[in-house]
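Sequence in, structure out. Go.
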Amino acid sequence: MITLRINGETHPFPAPLSITDLLTVLDLTGKRVAVEKNGEIVPKSQHAQVMAGDGDHLEIVVAVGGG
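Output:
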């Protein structure tokens, strides 16, 4: 069991997971998002390789269009 802090809230997960898998679990697949892990931006091209593990702090911002 791991604990991630996402946008200021603590969330438990059964195991470490990639940013891609995390976005899937959070139902954000296909949305335009920016992800920051422990103060560092994670480029979209690296979402599948970068793992989120116990104690990591993530900020996830979803782009919203409109006018």
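Check: The two ends are 42 Å apart (CA to CA). The helical segments are 19-25.
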